[in-house]
Amino acid sequence: MWKNLSIGKKYGAGFTVAIALFAVAIVLVFLQLQAAGEDVTRVSETGTTAVDVSDMASLTRSKDIRVADYIENPLQSYVQEFEERRQSFNQLQEEYAGYYEGTEYEETMNTVQDIDSQLNDLFLNKIVGNLSNEDAVEASRARIQTLRGDLIEELETLQTAAESEMDNANSAADNAIQLTLLTLITAGLLALIAGAVTMLLVSRKVRRNMNALVQKADQISEGELYHDNFDYDGNDEIGHLGTSINTMKGNLERLITEISTLSHQVEEQSRELKQSSGEVKEGSEQIASTMQELSSSSEQQASDASNLSEMMTVLSQKVEGANEESSKVSDDAKVVLENSNHGKELMDESVKQMRDIHTVMHQAVERVHRLDKQSGEISKLVQVIRDIADQTNLLALNAAIEAARAGEHGKGFAVVAEEVRKLAEQVSNSVGEITGMVDGIQTESREVSDSLASGYTQVEEGTTQMEETGATFEEIQASIKNIASGIDVISTNLESIEESTSDMNQSIESVASSSEEAAAGVEETTASVEQSHHSIEEVNRRSGELSAMSGRLNSLVAQFQLEDTDADSQEDETDESAYEKEQEDENQEEDDSKEQAS
Protein backbone atom coordinates (compact mmCIF):
# COMPACT_ATOMS: atom_id res chain seq x y z
CA MET A 1 0.00 0.00 0.00
CA TRP A 2 2.79 2.45 0.94
CA LYS A 3 4.78 1.65 -2.22
CA ASN A 4 1.82 2.48 -4.46
CA LEU A 5 1.23 5.92 -2.93
CA SER A 6 2.33 8.97 -4.89
CA ILE A 7 5.27 11.05 -3.65
CA GLY A 8 2.94 13.89 -2.68
CA LYS A 9 0.77 11.53 -0.61
CA LYS A 10 3.87 10.11 1.12
CA TYR A 11 4.94 13.60 2.16
CA GLY A 12 1.32 14.28 3.12
CA ALA A 13 1.32 11.21 5.37
CA GLY A 14 4.39 12.50 7.20
CA PHE A 15 2.77 15.89 7.61
CA THR A 16 -0.43 14.21 8.87
CA VAL A 17 1.56 12.38 11.57
CA ALA A 18 2.98 15.68 12.78
CA ILE A 19 -0.48 17.30 12.75
CA ALA A 20 -1.96 14.38 14.71
CA LEU A 21 0.73 14.68 17.38
CA PHE A 22 0.11 18.41 17.60
CA ALA A 23 -3.62 17.71 18.03
CA VAL A 24 -2.88 15.29 20.88
CA ALA A 25 -0.68 17.95 22.46
CA ILE A 26 -3.49 20.50 22.21
CA VAL A 27 -5.94 18.09 23.92
CA LEU A 28 -3.47 17.40 26.74
CA VAL A 29 -2.81 21.10 27.23
CA PHE A 30 -6.56 21.78 27.27
CA LEU A 31 -7.06 19.20 30.03
CA GLN A 32 -4.16 20.65 32.02
CA LEU A 33 -5.57 24.15 31.63
CA GLN A 34 -8.96 22.96 32.91
CA ALA A 35 -7.26 21.59 36.03
CA ALA A 36 -5.36 24.85 36.48
CA GLY A 37 -8.65 26.76 36.11
CA GLU A 38 -10.20 24.72 38.91
CA ASP A 39 -7.20 25.53 41.13
CA VAL A 40 -7.53 29.24 40.34
CA THR A 41 -11.24 29.09 41.21
CA ARG A 42 -10.35 27.47 44.53
CA VAL A 43 -7.81 30.27 45.17
CA SER A 44 -10.55 32.84 44.59
CA GLU A 45 -12.99 31.05 46.91
CA THR A 46 -10.47 30.69 49.73
CA GLY A 47 -9.44 34.33 49.35
CA THR A 48 -13.08 35.40 49.68
CA THR A 49 -13.42 33.19 52.75
CA ALA A 50 -10.38 34.81 54.41
CA VAL A 51 -11.77 38.28 53.72
CA ASP A 52 -15.21 37.39 55.10
CA VAL A 53 -13.71 35.88 58.25
CA SER A 54 -11.70 39.08 58.70
CA ASP A 55 -14.95 41.03 58.32
CA MET A 56 -16.53 38.88 61.04
CA ALA A 57 -13.66 39.82 63.36
CA SER A 58 -14.17 43.49 62.50
CA LEU A 59 -17.90 43.17 63.21
CA THR A 60 -17.07 41.62 66.59
CA ARG A 61 -14.83 44.56 67.49
CA SER A 62 -17.49 46.98 66.27
CA LYS A 63 -20.15 45.32 68.45
CA ASP A 64 -17.83 45.57 71.45
CA ILE A 65 -17.41 49.27 70.74
CA ARG A 66 -21.20 49.71 70.65
CA VAL A 67 -21.46 47.98 74.03
CA ALA A 68 -18.96 50.42 75.53
CA ASP A 69 -20.73 53.36 73.91
CA TYR A 70 -24.10 52.24 75.25
CA ILE A 71 -22.73 51.86 78.77
CA GLU A 72 -21.31 55.37 78.59
CA ASN A 73 -24.32 56.91 76.88
CA PRO A 74 -27.44 54.67 76.79
CA LEU A 75 -28.82 55.72 73.43
CA GLN A 76 -31.15 53.47 71.43
CA SER A 77 -29.11 54.19 68.27
CA TYR A 78 -26.22 52.17 69.74
CA VAL A 79 -28.55 49.24 70.29
CA GLN A 80 -29.74 49.50 66.67
CA GLU A 81 -26.17 49.67 65.40
CA PHE A 82 -25.31 46.64 67.55
CA GLU A 83 -28.30 44.79 66.08
CA GLU A 84 -27.23 45.65 62.52
CA ARG A 85 -23.74 44.27 63.12
CA ARG A 86 -25.19 41.19 64.81
CA GLN A 87 -27.35 40.49 61.74
CA SER A 88 -24.36 40.98 59.40
CA PHE A 89 -22.30 38.65 61.57
CA ASN A 90 -25.07 36.02 61.63
CA GLN A 91 -25.44 36.25 57.84
CA LEU A 92 -21.73 35.54 57.32
CA GLN A 93 -21.84 32.82 59.97
CA GLU A 94 -24.77 31.05 58.28
CA GLU A 95 -23.06 31.38 54.89
CA TYR A 96 -19.91 29.62 56.07
CA ALA A 97 -21.52 27.12 58.44
CA GLY A 98 -21.99 24.72 55.52
CA TYR A 99 -18.54 25.57 54.12
CA TYR A 100 -16.78 24.20 57.22
CA GLU A 101 -19.21 21.33 57.78
CA GLY A 102 -17.41 17.99 57.78
CA THR A 103 -13.96 19.61 58.09
CA GLU A 104 -11.55 19.86 60.98
CA TYR A 105 -12.70 23.46 61.54
CA GLU A 106 -16.37 22.58 62.04
CA GLU A 107 -15.89 22.59 65.83
CA THR A 108 -14.17 25.98 65.63
CA MET A 109 -17.12 27.40 63.70
CA ASN A 110 -19.53 26.01 66.33
CA THR A 111 -17.43 27.63 69.05
CA VAL A 112 -17.63 30.96 67.22
CA GLN A 113 -21.41 30.62 67.07
CA ASP A 114 -21.67 29.84 70.80
CA ILE A 115 -19.39 32.70 71.85
CA ASP A 116 -21.24 35.16 69.64
CA SER A 117 -24.58 34.04 71.07
CA GLN A 118 -23.28 34.55 74.64
CA LEU A 119 -21.94 37.99 73.75
CA ASN A 120 -25.24 39.04 72.17
CA ASP A 121 -27.23 37.69 75.12
CA LEU A 122 -25.11 39.56 77.68
CA PHE A 123 -25.57 42.87 75.93
CA LEU A 124 -29.22 42.60 74.92
CA ASN A 125 -30.50 40.91 78.09
CA LYS A 126 -28.03 41.87 80.85
CA ILE A 127 -26.95 45.37 79.95
CA VAL A 128 -29.68 46.98 77.83
CA GLY A 129 -32.31 48.35 80.25
CA ASN A 130 -30.30 47.32 83.37
CA LEU A 131 -27.76 50.13 83.66
CA SER A 132 -29.01 50.93 87.14
CA ASN A 133 -27.34 47.75 88.43
CA GLU A 134 -23.77 48.93 87.97
CA ASP A 135 -22.15 45.81 89.43
CA ALA A 136 -24.05 43.52 87.05
CA VAL A 137 -23.30 45.80 84.12
CA GLU A 138 -19.62 45.91 85.04
CA ALA A 139 -19.48 42.14 85.30
CA SER A 140 -21.29 41.72 81.99
CA ARG A 141 -18.94 44.21 80.38
CA ALA A 142 -15.90 42.35 81.61
CA ARG A 143 -17.41 39.08 80.40
CA ILE A 144 -18.13 40.60 76.97
CA GLN A 145 -14.52 41.73 76.66
CA THR A 146 -13.33 38.23 77.49
CA LEU A 147 -15.74 36.69 74.97
CA ARG A 148 -14.64 39.21 72.36
CA GLY A 149 -11.01 38.16 72.75
CA ASP A 150 -11.93 34.47 72.55
CA LEU A 151 -14.16 35.04 69.51
CA ILE A 152 -11.50 37.04 67.67
CA GLU A 153 -8.94 34.35 68.47
CA GLU A 154 -11.20 31.64 66.98
CA LEU A 155 -11.88 33.80 63.92
CA GLU A 156 -8.14 34.36 63.46
CA THR A 157 -7.74 30.57 63.51
CA LEU A 158 -10.30 30.26 60.70
CA GLN A 159 -8.65 33.10 58.80
CA THR A 160 -5.23 31.46 59.12
CA ALA A 161 -6.70 28.18 57.83
CA ALA A 162 -8.31 29.97 54.86
CA GLU A 163 -5.05 31.72 54.02
CA SER A 164 -3.15 28.43 54.26
CA GLU A 165 -5.66 26.76 51.95
CA MET A 166 -5.33 29.68 49.54
CA ASP A 167 -1.53 29.25 49.54
CA ASN A 168 -1.94 25.53 48.80
CA ALA A 169 -4.34 26.32 45.96
CA ASN A 170 -1.85 28.85 44.58
CA SER A 171 0.90 26.23 44.65
CA ALA A 172 -1.36 23.70 42.94
CA ALA A 173 -2.25 26.22 40.23
CA ASP A 174 1.44 27.04 39.66
CA ASN A 175 2.29 23.34 39.43
CA ALA A 176 -0.56 22.77 36.97
CA ILE A 177 0.63 25.64 34.77
CA GLN A 178 4.23 24.35 34.83
CA LEU A 179 3.00 20.85 33.95
CA THR A 180 0.97 22.36 31.10
CA LEU A 181 4.03 24.12 29.71
CA LEU A 182 6.13 20.97 30.05
CA THR A 183 3.44 18.93 28.29
CA LEU A 184 3.17 21.48 25.48
CA ILE A 185 6.94 21.64 24.94
CA THR A 186 7.36 17.85 25.10
CA ALA A 187 4.47 17.15 22.73
CA GLY A 188 5.65 19.85 20.33
CA LEU A 189 9.18 18.41 20.27
CA LEU A 190 7.86 14.88 19.74
CA ALA A 191 5.63 16.07 16.89
CA LEU A 192 8.52 17.98 15.33
CA ILE A 193 10.90 15.02 15.63
CA ALA A 194 8.33 12.55 14.27
CA GLY A 195 7.49 14.80 11.33
CA ALA A 196 11.17 15.46 10.58
CA VAL A 197 12.06 11.74 10.76
CA THR A 198 9.13 10.83 8.49
CA MET A 199 10.04 13.51 5.95
CA LEU A 200 13.72 12.48 6.11
CA LEU A 201 12.93 8.82 5.45
CA VAL A 202 10.60 9.64 2.55
CA SER A 203 13.08 12.14 1.06
CA ARG A 204 15.95 9.69 1.44
CA LYS A 205 14.10 6.91 -0.37
CA VAL A 206 12.87 9.23 -3.12
CA ARG A 207 16.36 10.70 -3.58
CA ARG A 208 17.98 7.25 -3.78
CA ASN A 209 15.48 6.02 -6.40
CA MET A 210 15.69 9.28 -8.36
CA ASN A 211 19.51 9.04 -8.44
CA ALA A 212 19.24 5.49 -9.81
CA LEU A 213 16.70 6.67 -12.38
CA VAL A 214 18.91 9.61 -13.44
CA GLN A 215 21.88 7.24 -13.76
CA LYS A 216 19.84 4.95 -16.01
CA ALA A 217 18.74 7.95 -18.14
CA ASP A 218 22.38 9.10 -18.42
CA GLN A 219 23.41 5.64 -19.63
CA ILE A 220 20.71 5.71 -22.31
CA SER A 221 21.65 9.28 -23.35
CA GLU A 222 25.29 8.13 -23.76
CA GLY A 223 24.16 5.24 -25.98
CA GLU A 224 24.87 2.45 -23.46
CA LEU A 225 21.80 0.30 -24.12
CA TYR A 226 23.34 -2.96 -22.91
CA HIS A 227 22.68 -2.21 -19.19
CA ASP A 228 19.82 -3.90 -17.31
CA ASN A 229 16.38 -2.30 -17.08
CA PHE A 230 15.47 -0.01 -14.16
CA ASP A 231 14.06 -2.17 -11.34
CA TYR A 232 11.60 -0.44 -8.95
CA ASP A 233 8.93 -2.01 -6.74
CA GLY A 234 6.17 0.59 -6.56
CA ASN A 235 3.42 2.36 -8.46
CA ASP A 236 4.22 6.01 -7.71
CA GLU A 237 5.65 8.68 -10.03
CA ILE A 238 9.13 7.11 -9.91
CA GLY A 239 7.66 3.73 -10.87
CA HIS A 240 5.77 5.25 -13.82
CA LEU A 241 8.87 7.13 -14.96
CA GLY A 242 11.03 4.00 -14.62
CA THR A 243 8.54 2.00 -16.70
CA SER A 244 8.58 4.71 -19.39
CA ILE A 245 12.40 4.72 -19.47
CA ASN A 246 12.51 0.91 -19.74
CA THR A 247 9.98 1.04 -22.60
CA MET A 248 11.99 3.76 -24.34
CA LYS A 249 15.18 1.70 -23.95
CA GLY A 250 13.54 -1.37 -25.49
CA ASN A 251 12.14 0.64 -28.39
CA LEU A 252 15.56 2.21 -29.01
CA GLU A 253 17.23 -1.21 -29.05
CA ARG A 254 14.80 -2.54 -31.66
CA LEU A 255 14.98 0.65 -33.72
CA ILE A 256 18.80 0.78 -33.71
CA THR A 257 19.02 -2.89 -34.73
CA GLU A 258 16.68 -2.42 -37.70
CA ILE A 259 18.35 0.84 -38.77
CA SER A 260 21.79 -0.78 -38.64
CA THR A 261 20.66 -3.67 -40.88
CA LEU A 262 18.97 -1.40 -43.43
CA SER A 263 21.91 1.00 -43.41
CA HIS A 264 24.38 -1.69 -44.41
CA GLN A 265 22.09 -2.84 -47.23
CA VAL A 266 21.64 0.71 -48.55
CA GLU A 267 25.37 1.30 -48.34
CA GLU A 268 26.15 -1.73 -50.53
CA GLN A 269 23.53 -0.82 -53.13
CA SER A 270 24.62 2.83 -53.24
CA ARG A 271 28.20 1.77 -53.92
CA GLU A 272 27.13 -0.38 -56.88
CA LEU A 273 24.89 2.37 -58.26
CA LYS A 274 27.60 5.00 -57.91
CA GLN A 275 30.11 2.82 -59.71
CA SER A 276 27.70 2.27 -62.68
CA SER A 277 26.74 5.92 -62.96
CA GLY A 278 30.38 6.95 -62.82
CA GLU A 279 31.21 4.86 -65.86
CA VAL A 280 28.33 6.40 -67.89
CA LYS A 281 29.15 9.90 -66.65
CA GLU A 282 32.72 9.90 -67.95
CA GLY A 283 31.52 10.04 -71.62
CA SER A 284 29.36 13.16 -71.25
CA GLU A 285 31.10 14.99 -68.42
CA GLN A 286 33.84 16.51 -70.60
CA ILE A 287 31.21 18.26 -72.79
CA ALA A 288 28.74 19.41 -70.13
CA SER A 289 30.92 20.16 -67.12
CA THR A 290 31.71 23.77 -67.93
CA MET A 291 28.19 24.72 -69.09
CA GLN A 292 26.64 22.81 -66.21
CA GLU A 293 28.72 24.62 -63.67
CA LEU A 294 27.83 27.96 -65.21
CA SER A 295 24.13 27.10 -65.40
CA SER A 296 24.09 25.79 -61.86
CA SER A 297 25.82 28.90 -60.58
CA SER A 298 23.42 31.22 -62.43
CA GLU A 299 20.34 29.34 -61.28
CA GLN A 300 21.60 29.20 -57.71
CA GLN A 301 22.36 32.91 -57.78
CA ALA A 302 18.90 33.74 -59.15
CA SER A 303 17.20 31.44 -56.64
CA ASP A 304 19.19 32.82 -53.74
CA ALA A 305 18.49 36.39 -54.85
CA SER A 306 14.77 35.68 -55.12
CA ASN A 307 14.65 33.98 -51.73
CA LEU A 308 16.68 36.78 -50.21
CA SER A 309 14.27 39.35 -51.67
CA GLU A 310 11.30 37.55 -50.15
CA MET A 311 13.06 37.24 -46.80
CA MET A 312 13.98 40.93 -46.84
CA THR A 313 10.33 41.81 -47.56
CA VAL A 314 9.20 39.72 -44.60
CA LEU A 315 11.98 41.20 -42.47
CA SER A 316 10.93 44.72 -43.44
CA GLN A 317 7.33 43.99 -42.43
CA LYS A 318 8.46 42.52 -39.11
CA VAL A 319 10.75 45.47 -38.41
CA GLU A 320 7.89 47.87 -39.19
CA GLY A 321 5.56 45.95 -36.84
CA ALA A 322 8.25 45.84 -34.15
CA ASN A 323 8.73 49.61 -34.52
CA GLU A 324 4.99 50.19 -34.01
CA GLU A 325 4.93 47.89 -30.97
CA SER A 326 8.03 49.64 -29.61
CA SER A 327 6.19 52.98 -29.80
CA LYS A 328 3.22 51.52 -27.93
CA VAL A 329 5.50 49.97 -25.29
CA SER A 330 7.30 53.32 -24.93
CA ASP A 331 3.97 55.07 -24.29
CA ASP A 332 2.96 52.38 -21.79
CA ALA A 333 6.34 52.66 -20.05
CA LYS A 334 5.81 56.41 -19.64
CA VAL A 335 2.37 55.79 -18.10
CA VAL A 336 3.87 53.16 -15.75
CA LEU A 337 6.64 55.60 -14.81
CA GLU A 338 4.08 58.30 -13.95
CA ASN A 339 2.08 55.79 -11.87
CA SER A 340 5.22 54.62 -10.07
CA ASN A 341 6.12 58.25 -9.27
CA HIS A 342 2.63 58.82 -7.87
CA GLY A 343 2.84 55.53 -5.93
CA LYS A 344 6.20 56.53 -4.47
CA GLU A 345 4.74 59.86 -3.29
CA LEU A 346 1.82 58.03 -1.62
CA MET A 347 4.23 55.51 -0.07
CA ASP A 348 6.43 58.32 1.32
CA GLU A 349 3.32 59.92 2.86
CA SER A 350 2.28 56.55 4.36
CA VAL A 351 5.75 56.04 5.85
CA LYS A 352 5.60 59.52 7.40
CA GLN A 353 2.15 58.81 8.90
CA MET A 354 3.36 55.46 10.29
CA ARG A 355 6.29 57.20 11.96
CA ASP A 356 3.90 59.74 13.53
CA ILE A 357 1.71 56.86 14.78
CA HIS A 358 4.85 55.15 16.11
CA THR A 359 5.75 58.29 18.13
CA VAL A 360 2.20 58.70 19.53
CA MET A 361 2.01 55.03 20.56
CA HIS A 362 5.42 55.24 22.25
CA GLN A 363 4.33 58.30 24.27
CA ALA A 364 1.03 56.60 25.23
CA VAL A 365 2.87 53.49 26.48
CA GLU A 366 5.22 55.60 28.61
CA ARG A 367 2.32 57.60 30.11
CA VAL A 368 0.37 54.45 30.99
CA HIS A 369 3.47 53.02 32.68
CA ARG A 370 3.80 56.21 34.75
CA LEU A 371 0.08 56.01 35.61
CA ASP A 372 0.53 52.42 36.79
CA LYS A 373 3.46 53.44 39.03
CA GLN A 374 1.48 56.36 40.49
CA SER A 375 -1.48 54.03 41.20
CA GLY A 376 0.90 51.81 43.17
CA GLU A 377 2.02 54.83 45.19
CA ILE A 378 -1.65 55.66 45.89
CA SER A 379 -2.17 52.10 47.16
CA LYS A 380 0.74 52.52 49.57
CA LEU A 381 -0.68 55.86 50.78
CA VAL A 382 -4.16 54.34 51.25
CA GLN A 383 -2.64 51.53 53.34
CA VAL A 384 -0.92 54.10 55.55
CA ILE A 385 -4.24 55.96 55.99
CA ARG A 386 -5.96 52.66 56.84
CA ASP A 387 -3.37 51.91 59.53
CA ILE A 388 -3.78 55.41 60.96
CA ALA A 389 -7.60 55.02 61.01
CA ASP A 390 -7.35 51.68 62.82
CA GLN A 391 -4.95 53.13 65.35
CA THR A 392 -7.20 56.17 65.83
CA ASN A 393 -10.19 53.90 66.34
CA LEU A 394 -8.33 51.97 69.05
CA LEU A 395 -7.22 55.18 70.70
CA ALA A 396 -10.81 56.51 70.65
CA LEU A 397 -12.00 53.24 72.21
CA ASN A 398 -9.39 53.45 74.95
CA ALA A 399 -10.27 57.11 75.51
CA ALA A 400 -13.96 56.21 75.84
CA ILE A 401 -13.10 53.52 78.35
CA GLU A 402 -10.95 55.90 80.37
CA ALA A 403 -13.70 58.57 80.21
CA ALA A 404 -16.19 56.02 81.51
CA ARG A 405 -13.92 55.28 84.39
CA ALA A 406 -13.57 58.99 85.15
CA GLY A 407 -17.32 59.31 85.59
CA GLU A 408 -18.80 62.78 85.45
CA HIS A 409 -15.41 64.40 84.92
CA GLY A 410 -14.78 62.40 81.76
CA LYS A 411 -18.10 62.91 79.96
CA GLY A 412 -16.78 65.75 77.81
CA PHE A 413 -13.74 63.71 76.93
CA ALA A 414 -16.03 60.75 76.11
CA VAL A 415 -17.99 62.88 73.62
CA VAL A 416 -14.74 63.91 71.91
CA ALA A 417 -13.56 60.29 71.86
CA GLU A 418 -16.88 59.22 70.31
CA GLU A 419 -16.54 61.79 67.54
CA VAL A 420 -12.95 60.73 66.92
CA ARG A 421 -14.07 57.09 66.73
CA LYS A 422 -16.85 57.88 64.25
CA LEU A 423 -14.41 59.88 62.17
CA ALA A 424 -11.97 56.94 62.23
CA GLU A 425 -14.74 54.59 61.07
CA GLN A 426 -15.68 56.94 58.24
CA VAL A 427 -12.02 57.16 57.25
CA SER A 428 -11.76 53.34 57.37
CA ASN A 429 -14.85 52.94 55.16
CA SER A 430 -13.61 55.59 52.73
CA VAL A 431 -10.21 53.92 52.61
CA GLY A 432 -11.92 50.63 51.70
CA GLU A 433 -13.78 52.30 48.84
CA ILE A 434 -10.61 54.06 47.69
CA THR A 435 -8.75 50.75 47.80
CA GLY A 436 -11.37 49.15 45.55
CA MET A 437 -11.23 52.05 43.11
CA VAL A 438 -7.42 52.05 43.08
CA ASP A 439 -7.37 48.29 42.46
CA GLY A 440 -9.80 48.79 39.57
CA ILE A 441 -7.67 51.62 38.18
CA GLN A 442 -4.53 49.49 38.45
CA THR A 443 -6.24 46.57 36.70
CA GLU A 444 -7.51 48.79 33.90
CA SER A 445 -4.14 50.53 33.58
CA ARG A 446 -2.36 47.17 33.30
CA GLU A 447 -4.79 46.01 30.61
CA VAL A 448 -4.40 49.32 28.76
CA SER A 449 -0.61 49.05 29.14
CA ASP A 450 -0.60 45.51 27.71
CA SER A 451 -2.87 46.56 24.82
CA LEU A 452 -0.73 49.62 24.07
CA ALA A 453 2.45 47.54 24.26
CA SER A 454 0.97 45.05 21.77
CA GLY A 455 -0.20 47.87 19.52
CA TYR A 456 3.19 49.55 19.82
CA THR A 457 4.92 46.34 18.69
CA GLN A 458 2.58 46.02 15.70
CA VAL A 459 3.14 49.70 14.81
CA GLU A 460 6.91 49.13 14.92
CA GLU A 461 6.58 46.14 12.58
CA GLY A 462 4.24 48.11 10.30
CA THR A 463 6.68 51.03 10.21
CA THR A 464 9.55 48.71 9.25
CA GLN A 465 7.49 47.06 6.52
CA MET A 466 6.35 50.43 5.14
CA GLU A 467 9.97 51.64 5.01
CA GLU A 468 11.02 48.44 3.19
CA THR A 469 8.10 48.86 0.77
CA GLY A 470 9.15 52.47 0.14
CA ALA A 471 12.70 51.34 -0.68
CA THR A 472 11.29 48.70 -3.04
CA PHE A 473 9.19 51.39 -4.77
CA GLU A 474 12.34 53.44 -5.30
CA GLU A 475 14.09 50.45 -6.88
CA ILE A 476 11.04 49.78 -9.09
CA GLN A 477 10.96 53.43 -10.16
CA ALA A 478 14.66 53.35 -11.09
CA SER A 479 14.16 50.10 -13.06
CA ILE A 480 11.16 51.57 -14.92
CA LYS A 481 13.22 54.63 -15.86
CA ASN A 482 15.97 52.37 -17.23
CA ILE A 483 13.37 50.34 -19.17
CA ALA A 484 11.85 53.51 -20.65
CA SER A 485 15.30 54.72 -21.76
CA GLY A 486 16.09 51.31 -23.31
CA ILE A 487 12.75 51.27 -25.16
CA ASP A 488 13.47 54.72 -26.64
CA VAL A 489 16.87 53.51 -27.86
CA ILE A 490 15.30 50.35 -29.36
CA SER A 491 12.62 52.43 -31.11
CA THR A 492 15.28 54.67 -32.67
CA ASN A 493 17.33 51.66 -33.82
CA LEU A 494 14.25 49.98 -35.32
CA GLU A 495 13.45 53.10 -37.37
CA SER A 496 17.01 53.13 -38.73
CA ILE A 497 16.83 49.38 -39.51
CA GLU A 498 13.50 49.89 -41.31
CA GLU A 499 15.03 52.49 -43.64
CA SER A 500 18.12 50.34 -44.33
CA THR A 501 15.96 47.27 -45.01
CA SER A 502 13.94 49.13 -47.64
CA ASP A 503 17.12 50.13 -49.51
CA MET A 504 18.53 46.60 -49.34
CA ASN A 505 15.26 45.14 -50.65
CA GLN A 506 15.43 47.32 -53.78
CA SER A 507 19.05 46.32 -54.45
CA ILE A 508 18.28 42.62 -54.01
CA GLU A 509 15.34 42.82 -56.45
CA SER A 510 17.67 44.34 -59.05
CA VAL A 511 20.26 41.58 -58.53
CA ALA A 512 17.56 38.89 -58.77
CA SER A 513 16.33 40.30 -62.09
CA SER A 514 19.84 40.28 -63.58
CA SER A 515 20.51 36.75 -62.29
CA GLU A 516 17.30 35.45 -63.85
CA GLU A 517 18.22 36.93 -67.26
CA ALA A 518 21.71 35.37 -67.10
CA ALA A 519 20.32 31.99 -66.09
CA ALA A 520 17.85 32.08 -68.99
CA GLY A 521 20.70 32.65 -71.49
CA VAL A 522 22.78 29.81 -70.04
CA GLU A 523 19.83 27.44 -70.09
CA GLU A 524 19.17 28.13 -73.79
CA THR A 525 22.85 27.46 -74.58
CA THR A 526 23.09 24.18 -72.64
CA ALA A 527 19.63 22.79 -73.48
CA SER A 528 20.87 20.14 -75.87
CA VAL A 529 23.69 18.98 -73.54
CA GLU A 530 21.50 19.04 -70.48
CA GLN A 531 18.94 16.65 -71.96
CA SER A 532 21.49 13.86 -72.33
CA HIS A 533 23.52 14.60 -69.23
CA HIS A 534 20.87 15.50 -66.70
CA SER A 535 19.63 11.99 -66.00
CA ILE A 536 23.13 10.57 -65.50
CA GLU A 537 24.16 13.52 -63.31
CA GLU A 538 21.08 13.24 -61.15
CA VAL A 539 21.59 9.50 -60.63
CA ASN A 540 25.25 10.02 -59.78
CA ARG A 541 24.50 12.86 -57.38
CA ARG A 542 21.71 11.01 -55.65
CA SER A 543 23.81 7.88 -55.28
CA GLY A 544 26.62 9.94 -53.74
CA GLU A 545 24.25 11.59 -51.29
CA LEU A 546 22.72 8.23 -50.46
CA SER A 547 26.14 6.76 -49.82
CA ALA A 548 27.14 9.72 -47.63
CA MET A 549 23.89 9.56 -45.66
CA SER A 550 24.35 5.84 -45.21
CA GLY A 551 27.83 6.46 -43.81
CA ARG A 552 26.56 9.12 -41.42
CA LEU A 553 23.72 6.83 -40.38
CA ASN A 554 26.21 4.07 -39.58
CA SER A 555 28.24 6.54 -37.53
CA LEU A 556 25.13 7.56 -35.57
CA VAL A 557 24.07 3.97 -35.00
CA ALA A 558 27.60 3.14 -33.80
CA GLN A 559 27.08 5.57 -30.91
CA PHE A 560 24.56 3.14 -29.37
CA GLN A 561 26.16 0.09 -27.73
CA LEU A 562 23.82 -2.88 -27.71
CA GLU A 563 26.56 -5.19 -26.37
CA ASP A 564 29.54 -4.37 -24.16
CA THR A 565 32.34 -6.08 -26.17
CA ASP A 566 35.68 -4.63 -27.27
CA ALA A 567 35.78 -6.85 -30.37
CA ASP A 568 32.61 -5.31 -31.79
CA SER A 569 33.99 -1.84 -31.24
CA GLN A 570 37.23 -2.66 -33.09
CA GLU A 571 35.31 -4.21 -36.00
CA ASP A 572 33.09 -1.14 -36.34
CA GLU A 573 36.12 1.12 -36.34
CA THR A 574 37.78 -1.01 -39.09
CA ASP A 575 34.64 -0.89 -41.28
CA GLU A 576 34.29 2.84 -40.79
CA SER A 577 37.96 3.45 -41.72
CA ALA A 578 37.64 1.36 -44.88
CA TYR A 579 34.50 3.23 -45.88
CA GLU A 580 36.15 6.62 -45.34
CA LYS A 581 39.16 5.57 -47.45
CA GLU A 582 36.89 4.45 -50.28
CA GLN A 583 35.02 7.77 -50.17
CA GLU A 584 38.31 9.66 -50.41
CA ASP A 585 39.36 7.62 -53.48
CA GLU A 586 36.05 8.30 -55.22
CA ASN A 587 36.25 12.03 -54.49
CA GLN A 588 39.81 12.11 -55.85
CA GLU A 589 38.73 10.39 -59.09
CA GLU A 590 35.87 12.90 -59.50
CA ASP A 591 38.24 15.84 -59.05
CA ASP A 592 40.64 14.40 -61.67
CA SER A 593 37.77 14.04 -64.15
CA LYS A 594 36.74 17.67 -63.64
CA GLU A 595 40.33 18.85 -64.20
CA GLN A 596 40.57 16.89 -67.48
CA ALA A 597 37.23 18.37 -68.61
CA SER A 598 38.49 21.84 -67.89
TrEMBL record:
Residues 563-598 have a biased composition (Acidic residues). Residues 276-526 form the Methyl-accepting transducer domain. Residues 204-257 form the HAMP domain. The chain crosses the membrane at residues 12-33, 176-202. GO terms for molecular function: transmembrane signaling receptor activity. It is found in: Cell membrane. It comes from the Bacteria. Coiled coil: none annotated. The keyword Iron does not apply. Keywords: Cell membrane, Membrane, Transducer, Transmembrane, Transmembrane helix. Residues 269-284, 531-544 have a biased composition (Basic and acidic residues). Residues 288-306, 509-530 have a biased composition (Low complexity). Its main location: membrane. The keyword Transcription does not apply. GO terms for biological process: chemotaxis; signal transduction. Residues 269-306, 498-545, 557-598 are annotated as: Disordered. PANTHER family: LYSOZYME-LIKE PROTEIN-RELATED, METHYL-ACCEPTING CHEMOTAXIS PROTEIN MCPB. Belongs to the methyl-accepting chemotaxis (MCP) protein family. This is Methyl-accepting chemotaxis protein. It comes from Salimicrobium flavidum.
